[in-house]
Amino acid sequence: MFISILNLLALLCFLICWIGYTVFAKRKAKDTNCIAKCLHQHRIHWMHEVITRDIRVGEAALLANLERNIAFFASSTLLVLAGVLTLFAQVEKLEAVILSIPYAELPSHSIIQLKLGLLAFIFVLSFFQFTWSMRQYGFLNVMIGAAPIDESGTNENLRRYAKQMAVVQDQAAHSYNYGLRSYYFSMAVICWFFHPALFIFASLFVVYTLFIREFRSKAVKAINAGQEFLDIEREKRFPTYDHQSKNKA
Prior knowledge:
Elements: H1 5-28, H2 35-50, H3 57-87, H4 91-99, H5 109-146, H6 156-192, H7 196-216, H8 218-237
Helix pairs in contact: 1-6, 1-7, 2-6, 2-8, 3-5, 5-6, 6-7, 7-8
């Protein structure tokens, strides 16, 4: 199988964009307000509230809604994966479609199979992430069910337990985010079927879109402001609440 220099560069750019952005976002989230960091603080507040409630029907409904969204993507991923695998038997027809598109790169049978293989790998990876996210939400349900009640909200041992519940929920959300990120980058791979230059542009555009949404969007600013309000309220309700302890979770 012969692959042109431009196709090789496009594939390398795609891998650098995906892996590089994942590493960058994880490190930057440690010292920069972003969706992941701000929501983690909200989850800590949420779990602190959970241990003070005798009736937790609301939590069960909220978690069920989150799991339902993830289950939708997990089942949809299997359908998309089945469609991609089916295309392996229709490569000739796919070549004819690409040839009919103006300015598209001249298709190669082996290169198209490589592109389909990359798409299949991405959706397999996203399926693993979605199902792992579902399992971790299941673990969280068990932890909430086992959590004792502390109406005063001052039991330090249970507050530490609440933070561990928030950690499990945070990991479940990260897996969900990684699965969604796979969908974003699969859109870039689709552009590779038309031309490797378009593939490079699409990969860079996906990184730009993810960065803006996760670090610079209005939602991030609102969530961060809401986190500060919650900190103030917790300090009023629980004078012993350590404002800085949220950064140690």
